[in-house]
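Q: Got a minute? One more chain.
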Amino acid sequence: MLPGSLPPALTDWFAAKGWQPRSHQLAMLEEARAGRHALLVATTGAGKTLAGFLPTLTELIEAPSEGLHTLYVSPLKALAVDIRRNLVTPIEEMGLDIRVETRTGDTSSDKKARQRVKPPQILLTTPESLSLLLSYPDAGTMFASLKTIVVDEVHAFATGKRGDLLSLCMARLQRIAPAMRRVALSATVADPDGYRAWLAPDGDIDAVGLVTGEPGAPPDISILLPEDRIPWAGHSGRYAASQVMRVIEANRTTILFCNTRSLAELIFQDLWKANDKSLPIGVHHGSLSLEARAKVEAAMADGQLRALVATASLDLGVDWGDVDCVIQMGAPKGSSRLLQRIGRANHRLDESSRAILVPGNRFEYLEARAALDAVEAGELDPDLFRPGALDVLAQHVMACACAAPFEQGALLDEIRSAMPYSALDDETFERVLRFIADGGYALKAYDRFKRLVQQPDGTWRVTHPQFVAQHRLNAGIIVEATMLKVRFRNGRQLGRVEEGFAATLAPGDTFLFAGLSLEVESIDGEDLIVRATSRPARIPTYGGSRMPLSTSLADRVRAFLADRKEWDRFPPDVHDWLEMQDRRSVLPRPGQLLVETFPREGRHYMVAYSFEGWNAHQSLGMLITRRMEAQGLKPLGFVASDYALACYGLEKVTDPASLFSPDILENEFVDWVQQSHLLKRAFREVAVIGGLVDRQHPGKRKTGRQVTFSTDLIYDVLRKYEPGHLLLQAAWDDARARMTDVGRLANLLDRAGGTMLHVDLERVSPLAVPVLVLIGREKVATGSADDDLLIEAEALAAEAMGA
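A: Always. Here it is, folded:
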């Protein structure tokens, strides 16, 4: 289609800007005029937002209309505000009579009420706010005129629970407005067909056109090497603060991405210490208040900051044109995430975005090199679609009931048109309805769980208006994680740990905290009750869950180890490290599980190089030390990295294969999950999402302790009287998949028997040094930690690398 087929207002606006419409923008207009759904995959800076809205602007120029024409759905509240700014400006410059408004949890109640009566032509919102809109009786009227829904950054949530909710909402919208077109936008999609199927009504992939943007200039990515040598251990790149500061000084604006909030705070402090020129630097992450984040975003937009330290809170779509460099502190963990972050720099398609990676240790150097190679090869991380979650389905069904009574068969057909629920069977849907109707067999005696009733004509309706109000107050998919207080039985508090870590603990487990070896006695609400012990701390790390190393990057790192021709690309200290490992022990081949055993300082160590990511290794360490205990090997503890798992004890491991057998998932894993707080934590989340437990009542919000108490009580009742309850099943699904990376764990154990290579050594190997240094990290107090770690690392390295 030629640019001339655009309405004159748009043609003139492009000309006034000195621009030409890009081919993918016009292709999106073609898809719209053909009445087809469309997925646009285009790099950042290629004008994705305008491409998504171009058909809407064209239609509203050619045929002005009142009522809601286009819904724009974003995963982030702030992103909706940002796009509003980028969309409203062109509309005003063209003098168009088109209203654009946002609707999120921060929108005032009077504006929300007015939007339902007199909606704008374009409404920008989130999946949760859309679900709430659909829960009102007037939803049919509000959305009757809807022509298009645009899903931005679709990769960020389509494969998770928020994607499940949005998919169900789109199915409902399609029933209200059958001619509605679905559009999705993304810069990083590895499996376009998977997303086309997710986007399409009834999973009809052929109904969704795929539009691919122009590739643009390749990114300019480099790896920052330290002034002396790459460290043996660590995962932050903090050693390079002064070098990073010099990069900041040489650029207009730099964004530094960190993989955790705590690291962002540390890097921010490190940079201030090295900031001799007192350049303005900010920090941005999800734990900061909304006001603090807004202030920093405004400062960036006005060009007042030279650098911003951020986490995944800025991975998506906040577009500042003056950012000319992105720095990734620590390893990127995945090529798709790296590309997304690189895309925050230089929003010009014909100029390369510049990025610098700062690896934390030698394995992370290999990972950084693997990420560069993956980006150059156009290889993205795999997108893993899974069946829709049942707690999300329960929430959606309740929303539908709040809007109007429904007929069971018709609603099931509508739900099955959403790809994540296309295989939902009659029996499971019946269980979902019965759960909403009375809470299930064990809870049906309590009126507060009786939310739905089936009428004589067979339709289902809400039993009382109070349940409608409660749904709208409590609906949502994001359940805030709590921190647990670590305290002694007498009440003395030692500090707080992330609930994700506490959830993996069972009574009798020991861990290091505040310089003490502590034994878990119990978890009481939001308190982790401990006692001091002389027993060694088995679990020497207490960080929460981390971004997992992607399987594609892990495979590339494995290939590096096995291919000596690649080593010439690496710095001398990395080359020598691999050379010495090859001489002293073995370098694993791709697909092979290398397990080394060796003695050191009165202990016996077993190190497995499995490359399945920290989360999976952390879970495996818990299970293997339990099995070691049963075998009389007297385990003292374990430590995990993204690349390896090290277990250590008082007796030598002579048969590692027996520790890695697949039945560990059937025996130790089930016991561990049931004894730990893991299942209770998962249950609390699904109980909140599924509507079994309310987070707030009118004028009053429950504390985390109150929610935990309520869900723990229900959990204990269901475990005892109804172990097959719908939400217990959903909690098991969550605990197995999301919290423990059990899929990768299962793959590792399945192949361990046939691929394990056991090498028994007389001393520590070079490859083991990075993971063993982690044991020392948790044993030193803050302050002197860096010096002590350096001494420990150098001693280990000298032993491993020496003659």
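A: DSSP finds 30 helices and 27 strands in the chain.
Q: Perfect, thanks.
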